[in-house]
Amino acid sequence: MAIIVNLDVMLAKRKMRSNELAQLIGITEQNLSILKTGKAKAIRLTTLEAICKHLNCQPGDLLEYKDE
Fold this sequence. Notes:
By secondary structure, this protein is mainly alpha-helical. The protein is 57% helix and 9% strand. It is built from 5 helices and 2 strands, in the order βαααααβ.
């Protein structure tokens, strides 16, 4: 996929675990894992907003486009 999800990088920078973020934003650990591994086909803007709020980052810090 041309969209790269850098959620694991941001979690490491913030020294936060996936399960902790999942609890904070109100989604299951499984759904966060799907998003983190780039297997998600879509993301709600409300979820993206919540992730950015709790990781104190911008959407561009989480998502990256690479031409294949």
